[in-house]
Design goal:
The complex is a heterodimer of chains A (about 400) and B (about 675). Chain A is mainly α. Chain A has helices spanning about 1-10, 25-45, 50-70, 70-90, 100-105, 110-135, 135-165, 180-200, 205-225, 245-280, 285, 290-325, 330-350, 360-380. Chain B folds into 4 domains: about 1-120 and about 180-205, no CATH class; about 120-180 and about 635-685, Double Stranded RNA Binding Domain (2-Layer Sandwich); about 215-240 and about 240-330 and about 605-610, no CATH class; about 465-595. Chain B is built from 17 helices and 26 strands. In chain B, the strands form 6 sheets. In chain B, strands 14, 15, 18, 19, 20, 21 and 22 form a 7-stranded antiparallel sheet that branches. The chains are: A mainly alpha (about 400), B alpha+beta (about 675).
Chain lengths: ~400, ~675
């Protein structure tokens, strides 16, 4: 039956990529194009070539990210709208942060960060409640809160970036230069990573574990805000004035965020495994995430973190060669980045080549968190070196 | 080594998790080096060494370690090379092992990977396909020919590459995609080797060997660079990789840099000279440096000089040398100091001395000759404006002007450190000249605060001090105080003015040398306890009265008319002056050094490096990143469709697959493909 075979074969013609894009995807592309055009028209003259490259790269990344993971589009549009709103309300005067109602209570960077903090903590409690009560509705609420918290965190980030320029054109810089700022970045990135896996695997069961870690970092942000009064925007020391910072630091935090997520999933794994051992019929087993799922997502998170951590370290080396006179100086932060990296390289070798699975790797991921935390915080607290920018 | 099924399936074999490398390995040495256990041990060893290297601060002067660990552990740690771990022989050995191990691993895996990437395995047998985890079979409604066509088209449309082979009774379509995943393995591991090689080139092992054999010896003395002997010098041609530092004052030039090694330094000569034409630094309002940059002129024989400005993050490359702006400092600014003696030789016309920053100069005073060792000079001292001074929207920071530090060393070698401000500093609403002193860096500075006179100088205070040490003036002032006292208390006759005056004189002398403390001591040792308080306060009143008389003498000499009484400001000055004199004894220096004028010379700290391995390292880095993404985000997937024409005319299809990554995703893909294929190959007429 040659004719029918032909018709069958026609069906296999793979549709070209653009056909897989929906109307929203096209609107998204047009919006990115217009926004990019605006930015370049307004600011290209004030930017170095490299900064323009970073901007172009970010636009393309955002475009593709939105196509690949659809919720990014709505999230970005909301964040952009709120940030532009804040910028408009500031009217170029930083003191409006305390005078304009919407800024003071909603979208000045500090208020936005407070909203982020509150929403993340509430989301944690909601996920916990959903787990205990086995309530799917509460899960959806918790997920919505996590999305909102992430949006507010991003608004805080963007607006703080703008605020820094209001303090003086020479002071303005991307807010990733001290501990307060990078903790916001950490919370948001970890939030996004979690939401990605939640969406991809269509399960809320990992929520409470991921959010617990985010809440811990929120705790730190609150302590830093109220206990230390450390929220002020500080000008950059000369070594940090470089386009490298815009990619090096965020790449590092994708790494930290992924490793932390993997550790929390490791904890979930161990918890579930221990419950199952004690009581194979426990009602909790139906509510906690499946072991295979945890093992899989843990591995994915570590791989993602490892890839980004590698990029970050390599970029750090390029930057160091420009700022400190050598691509590698065995500075404590650098060295601890290497230790973290070696640790997860060993983890992956064990999994891939020795075929380890499950509990030992979960324990290792959990211990890996200590190593990661030391690289992130401990180095700043206990060791001094060239990286002494965010002291505790 | 790898559990990857692809590697293990040879045609006809059932997929198994055996370890083919072990079987193939011929040499025990290769076996050892290529073993995963060694690899992981080495990774962990590097990590542990790195932990030690960060916990134990590297590259400090040896004496710091001795203080920290005591002589015994100091020696032990020194033998272990713990003070410079990353340059120690054992660490380099571990790195060399890691390099070898990874290289062997590549050597052994590369052929397997090559085969794995290129062989489609069209000879696979039905029995082995049936043993796969992912497998399916069904009966198609099409002829075997059409079924094959459909399978081919379908797999192609899903991005698979395809090989097909007709066997006696059946045909096999073997498909795969994502082979680059396997290349990712090669890239990542080759990258490790490449990076290690680049780093070893830059660690300059030949120099380490020369040092070890004593052909090169670090200089430990602090001497002029020209006097450093040949054994501590490296010519421009001699060294292939280095990282050197130099602090270059404005308008000077250098043709060498210092390499800090162990406890000393080497002079590394350059094939060009670097001249610092100008150095500029900008500050934020808060006083933090905002940017600093140097205008350099590089001159080499037979070449036009190169002028270029460098700044942090903007180095200059020249002939394989890279010149960095690493910091700044003082290049020997000249300070003109007024020396105001605070002892018996106090004067209202000070001598001046001229000293350069970091230099020392003998300081001749009446009582001793001290060595004045100048420390740092700072032109600006930016401080936050305190709440008390703040008037609304005014600036948040202010510059309180230049300061300098210095040490005064006694003949017996003991020294105290001082910090003086040039301009008067506001304290409690009034201005003072401040000089801070401390015995060790661990302490805070204690300040002597000399009040500022109407001319804005120290003359009035020093004048008062001068009179205080002048016996004739003192006895006159004491007599006036005594008369005044006797007149006020109306006990003339009982006490003679002269004897009262002599007592007052003694009090004044005590005060001049030891402050109120000396007066108190005197009271405690001469007056019986019940009357100490009463007598003490009487003494203080008499003393202040005499001091005030001296002060009035000073004002009269200045041409002011104090008969009408002291103004509030003058009274305040007097109180401050008395406090200051009281503070001289704990201050403990025989002179106050006032900065009168300065000629600032800045120095730019430069770093010069040669890193021939750098590009190698960068290539390795790029390879690493590319390799890792290939490894993680591509999955090597294989599919087989085996079509058999059965005896009874039906077409039997066996479908199987294997993937080396993200097996869960692949399972889904496989399931979808199976459904598709089954549907299409069993439909009657394309519906
Ligand atoms: C610093 C040294 C090394 C680093 C950073 C490194 C890194 C990696 C990474 C990231 C993977 C991928 C893991 C995964 O896909 O989850 C991997 C896989 C692997 N590594 Fe290494 N490795 C190193 C040294 C070695 C050595 C010395 C050996 C040999 C004994 C080795 C053998 C392997 C093997 C056989 C695989 C599996 C490859 C595959 O089948 O896809 N590695 N390595």
């Amino acid at each position: 039956m040659p004719t029918s075979t032909e018709t069958v074969l026609d069906k296999f013609e793979k549709p070209p990529f653009y056909k897989s894009l929906g109307a929203y995807d096209w609107v998204w592309a047009v919006l990115i194009f217009l926004a990019g055009g605006q930015l370049f028209m307004r600011y290209a003259a004030q930017m170095e070539t490299f900064d323009q490259g970073v901007l172009l790269g970010s636009l393309i990344t955002l475009l593709i990210a939105g196509w690949a993971w659809k919720p990014i589009r709505t999230l970005s549009l909301i964040v952009s709208a709120l940030s532009i709103c804040a910028i408009t309300l500031y009217k170029g005067d930083i003191s409006n942060a305390e005078q304009v109602f919407a800024l003071q209570y909603l979208i000045s960077s500090q208020s936005a960060v407070m909203w982020m903090s509150a929403l993340y903590v509430m989301a944690t409690l909601a996920y916990l409640f959903a787990l205990i009560a086995s309530s799917q509705f509460t899960n959806r609420v918790a997920s919505f809160m996590t999305w909102s918290a992430t949006a507010m965190g991003l608004v805080g980030f963007m607006v703080r970036w703008y605020e820094s320029y209001l303090l003086g054109a020479d002071i303005g810089h991307i807010p990733v230069s001290n501990l307060y700022e990078v903790f916001i970045l950490f919370a948001v990135i970890m939030g996004l990573l979690y939401l990605y896996y939640e969406d991809r695997f269509r399960t809320y069961t990992m929520g409470v574990f991921a959010l617990a870690m985010i809440s811990a970092s929120v705790g730190f942000i609150l302590w830093y805000t109220f206990g230390r009064g450390g929220t002020e925007i500080q000008p950059l020391v000369p070594a940090l004035q470089s386009y490298w910072m815009k990619i090096h630091v965020p790449a590092n935090f994708v790494g930290y965020g992924s490793f932390s997520l993997a550790a929390m999933l490791g904890a979930a794994y161990l918890l579930r495994a221990s419950i199952a051992r004690r009581n194979p019929h426990s009602v909790w087993l139906a509510r906690l995430p499946e072991l295979e799922l945890l093992d899989d997502v843990m591995h994915k998170a570590i791989a993602l973190g490892f890839a980004f951590f590698t990029v970050a370290t390599v970029l750090g080396a390029f930057w160091a060669a420009e700022a400190w006179g050598n691509y590698w100086s065995w500075d404590p932060k650098e060295t601890w980045a290497l230790i973290v990296w070696l640790n997860y390289a060993a983890w992956m070798h064990m999994r891939l080549s020795k075929g380890w699975r499950g509990a030992p790797l979960a324990w290792w991921a959990l211990i890996g968190l200590l190593v990661t935390l030391f690289a992130f915080l401990g180095v700043n607290m206990f060791l001094s070196g060239l990286h002494s920018y965010g002291e505790l | 080594m790898s559990q990857n099924q692809n590697t293990n399936i040879d045609e006809g074999d059932a997929p198994s998790v055996k370890k083919p490398l072990k079987n193939r390995s011929r040499s025990g040495l290769l076996e050892f080096f290529g073993s995963m256990n060694l690899a992981i041990t080495l990774l962990v060893a590097v990590a542990i060494a790195a932990v030690i290297g960060t916990v134990l601060q590297q590259g400090l002067p040896y004496k710091d370690y001795i203080v920290k660990f005591g002589p015994f552990w100091f020696d032990v740690f020194k033998e272990l090379g713990l003070y410079n771990i990353y340059g120690s022989a054992w660490f380099l050995t571990i790195v060399a092992f890691l390099l070898t191990s990874t290289a062997v691993c590549i050597y052994r895996n590369a052929p397997i990977i090559y085969r794995d990437m290129t062989h489609f395995r069209v000879n696979v047998q039905e029995k082995s396909l049936r043993a796969f985890h992912l497998k399916a079979q069904w009966v198609a409604n099409h002829s075997s020919e059409d079924t094959l066509k459909i399978a081919l088209a379908y797999l192609k449309s899903r991005g698979y590459r395809i090989h097909q082979k007709a066997h006696e009774k059946h045909t096999v379509v073997a498909a795969m995609k994502g082979e680059a995943n396997r290349l990712g393995y090669l890239f990542t591991h080759a990258a490790i080797v490449v990076i290690c090689i680049g780093a070893l080139i830059d660690s300059n092992i030949p120099l380490k060997i020369a040092e070890f054999r004593g052909e090169v010896q670090p200089e430990t003395r602090n001497i002029d660079a020209r006097q450093v002997p040949e054994v501590s010098r490296l010519s421009a041609a001699e060294n292939s990789a280095f990282r050197g530092n130099i602090s270059l004052p404005e308008k000077t030039y250098t043709d060498f840099v210092n390499l800090y090694v162990g406890e000393g330094y080497l002079i590394q000569e350059l094939p060009f000279t670097i001249k610092l034409q100008d150095f500029r630094i900008e500050h934020y309002a808060s006083g933090q440096p905002k940017s600093f940059e140097s205008d350099l002129i590089i001159s080499a024989p037979n070449r036009p000089p190169l002028m270029q400005t460098i700044a942090v993050n903007h180095p200059l490359s020249y002939d394989g040398y890279t010149i960095y702006q690493s910091g700044f400092g003082d290049g020997g600014s000249l300070l003109h100091l007024n020396v105001w003696p605070l002892d018996r030789s106090a004067t209202s016309a000070p001598e001046t001395v001229k000293v350069a920053v970091y230099d020392s100069e003998p300081l001749q005073l009446e009582s001793v000759t001290l060595s004045l060792e100048l420390g740092d000079f700072r032109r600006n001292n930016i401080q936050p404006v305190t709440a008390a001074q703040e008037d609304g929207d005014g600036p948040k920071f202010q510059d309180i002007g230049p300061s300098f530090t210095f040490k005064l060393r006694r003949p017996d070698g003991r020294a105290r450190e001082f910090l003086n401000y040039m301009a008067p500093v506001l304290r409690n609403g009034r201005y003072y000249f401040l000089s801070g002193v401390r015995d060790s860096v661990a302490e805070e500075f204690h300040y002597l605060a000399v009040p500022v006179d109407e001319q804005g100088g120290m003359t009035r205070f020093m004048h008062l001090l001068e009179l205080l040490h002048n016996p004739r003036q003192v006895s006159e002032a004491a007599l006036r105080a005594a008369n005044h006292f006797l007149h006020e208390t109306q006990i003339d006759g009982e006490l003679l003015p002269n004897s009262v005056a002599r007592s007052i004189e003694r009090l004044v002398t005590l005060f001049a040398t030891g402050g109120f403390g000396a007066v108190t001591d005197h009271v405690l040792s001469t007056v019986p306890e019940p009357r100490q308080e009463e007598v003490g306060s009487a003494y203080v009143r008499l003393l202040r009265s005499a001091l005030k008389n001296l002060y009035i003498d000073v004002l009269v000499r200045e041409g002011l008319a104090p008969e009408v009484g002291l103004s509030n400001a003058e009274k305040q000055f007097f109180d401050d002056a008395v406090n200051a004199i009281d503070g001289i004894s704990p201050f403990g220096a025989p002179a106050f050094l006032q900065l009168a004028r300065y000629e600032e010379i800045q120095a730019s700290n430069l770093q010069v490096t040669v890193a021939p391995g750098r590009d190698t390292v960068y290539v390795g880095c790029v390879l690493l990143v590319v390799g890792i993404f290939m490894l993680f985000y591509l999955s090597h997937r294989r599919l087989w469709v085996m079509v058999t024409q059965g005896e009874s005319g039906q077409t039997r299809v066996v479908f199987a697959g294997s993937g080396n990554r993200n097996t869960a995703d692949f399972e889904q893909e496989f399931e979808a493909m199976r459904a598709d294929l089954k549907k299409h190959s069993s439909t009657q007429d394309g519906a």
